[in-house]
Predict the structure.
Amino acid sequence: MRKGLTPVIAMILLLMMTVAAAGASFYWLLGLQGELQGGTQQFQEQTFERMTSDVQWMSASFERNGTGDDNGTLMLTIMNTGTTKIPINNGTTSPKVQWTLYDSEQDFICTSDWSNTADIVICNSGCTSELALKEVRTINLTVDGNNSCSLNSTTTYPDDTLIYVDISFSGKTTTSGTFRVDTDD
């Protein structure tokens, strides 16, 4: 008697292994396709949200509270003209509002967030909740006179100096505008 597999049993075993490999490949590809589709859908939702988010810069005024190392006060009025709420947060965790200041020559002055941690920019009002649709809000910021964002030097920034500002609202949208430096008389 011969030992080993008969050709019929060998063929059945080969077919079963082929079907098992095809089934495993099918389920693996199905999972991979689901992951890719989910990632694409999430990217599409984020892109659409960014496209429909818009904050309009309405007005701004800055007054130095004296000269030297004194603080300055910026009153900024913005309006949500988009279709989603915009987070305006002065906390230390994300999402954060970040701004960049440029002088009249559009040379970089500084970048800072509104988290109050380094006392560069302190948000006194208007920074603790989301900006609702079509809401107009005035934000009151104190800019410390002892840091890179200080606009209090009358030599560097004389009265009526134009300052350009870019603000990023937690990566959802941006706005930009200008204001003039003025001395509080």
